[in-house]
Structures are given as structure tokens and as C-alpha cells.
Amino acid sequence: MPSSRTAIILGATADIGRHLAERLSSDNWNVVGIGRTALRLRELEKIPNLKAYQCSIADGDDVERLAGEMRAAGHQWDLLVSCVGTTEPIGKFFEIDFDEWERSIVVNFTAQLRVLHALWPLRRPERTVDVMLLAGGGTNGTFPNYSAYCVTKIALIKMCELIHDEASDANAFIIGPGFTRTRIHEETLRAGPIAAGRSYDKVRAYLEEQGTSFDDIYEHMRWCMLRGRQVAGGRNFSTVHDRWRDGGEELANQLYDDPDAFRLRRRQP
Which domains, from first to last, does the chain contain? Predict the structure, then answer.
């Protein structure tokens, strides 16, 4: 039986994005995978129930083209996930090129929101849709030499709160997966120990470990979706540290009772 549920994944060619696409497909979702690189998108087409679209999300005209094509194809979405991100440029703020820094702000923040804004009219009507963004390093502390990446993740956390307050038919939440073995860490290795500072040795050490599994990220996302807007909406979650596993009843009850918990700046209930 064809699925009536559709998920859109921005950055579907990234490691986390591809895994989420595979898991959603295996759970009988229709998947729309959006990526920038044609070669990697062709690899995605091996996934059942997946339709791939190429788009440079930092290009406003390209985003409008994408929205037009998806509208013409009759797509209506129930879940939108963004796995887009870069840690570059890496280095001290006053020593890096500002244009590169500003481009990172666009890719990590405003470009993702441009796509969400353009595709918002295509959401499934008469139901609450889910929107998941990814948080990252530095959102609850400092992250020196990664300033563009850090401030955009904080901004995304705030946007989840704002979307929650402004859009009553959205369950918008953001998940910090913790260290995950993905290609993004190659950026730190390329930057080297001088530019990356203390994070260089940390990343090399982390790469010797398993880190957060892609399956954990998927199950955490499902928990937020199943718990819904009153528990997950507008919240900033940690896959590693929060007690969402095994049903997460205690955490769900605490969040239901405290609308200010797990928001920016994050306060534990």
C-alpha cells in the first residue's frame, strides 16, 4: 500500500540525512531528498520511495525553482528535516575571511529557513506537521575558532521557539546529536591544529570512538514526533544527555508541565 506520509530531507546526501532517508523509507514514508551534488543524489535514488531534487539552497532563485517543481509534482509534506551544515571557515574570527564567514551564516542558518519558508505552503493541510533542525557544538558553552557554526546553531534554536509560537500547526524542535562520525569532521582535519585550536585533538580522539549512532538520532526524532507539539515543540534536545529513551515518560511529563524548559538559554526542568 502506498504511503500517505511524505518527509522532506534537506542535505539528504550528508551522512545523517542519508541514514534518515533510508530509515524513513523502510518505515513506509515517501521521501523527498534535496541535495546540492548531482552524483550523490543519483546514489540516493537507490532508496525505495525516494524522489531526489538538486538545489543550491543558498541561491534564492534555485529555491523558488525547487518549490515550483515540487508544487507541480503535487508533493505535500508531513515532516521536514534539515541536515545541512558546515563548520567552515575554521579559525579565529579576526583572522578568517569575513566573506567566507558570512557565507557560512547563510548556509547554516538563513538558507535552511528560506527552503522551509518556500515549502511551507506545501505542508499537509489540516494537521500538525513536524520540523526538525540539528543543533551542534557551542550552544551551551563556547566553541572558539568555529564562530560562524556556533552562532548559527544558537540562532536555529531560537527559530524553533519562534516557529512554535507563531505557527500553531507546527511541531518544530531541534536536536543536538552530540559527536557523530560524519564527513563534517574532515573540515577540522583539513584546517589543522593551528586554525582549529583545541578542537583538532578532540576530533582526532573522537574519531577513534563510535559516537552517537545514526539510529539513535532517528529514534530520538521519532520520540519528538510522537510526543508532539505540547512536549517537543520549540525545544532544544540532546540525544546523548536527555532521558528520552525507553518511552521517556518522566521527561515528557516534566516538559508538558514546564513550557519554559529546554529553550534558549536552556533550562533543565
Answer: 6-257 (3.40.50.720)
